[in-house]
Amino acid sequence: MNLGTSLIAVVFFVGLAAIVVAQRLEIRSAGYRVGKAEKELLKLDEEIRVLRTKKAQAEDPRNLWKKVQELGLPLLPPEFKEEPEKPAAKAAPKRTSRDAKPVQVRKQG
Fold this sequence. Notes:
Blueprint (H helix, E strand, L loop, with lengths): L2 H57 L1 H11 L38
């Protein structure tokens, strides 16, 4: 081998080594990104679980009633509400201008 061919071979192999090192670094970097994303996913799953638990507790009628009492709101639970007065007899519904039949106007001529 002469000097020129040897020099080309060395440059070629150094280039190949640089490509291999760059690929390995990119793989390692991608692994770190995947690990970070998985950690964030676990964190968000836990946050969702906590929020669902809080929502279930907030929607619980017993907790709502306690909160109403704590705030001093004048609300009665459904079983203690007064029933509306029942009408004595059904009367014919009143006609309003909206319910009236349209009047047809005849043209003279």
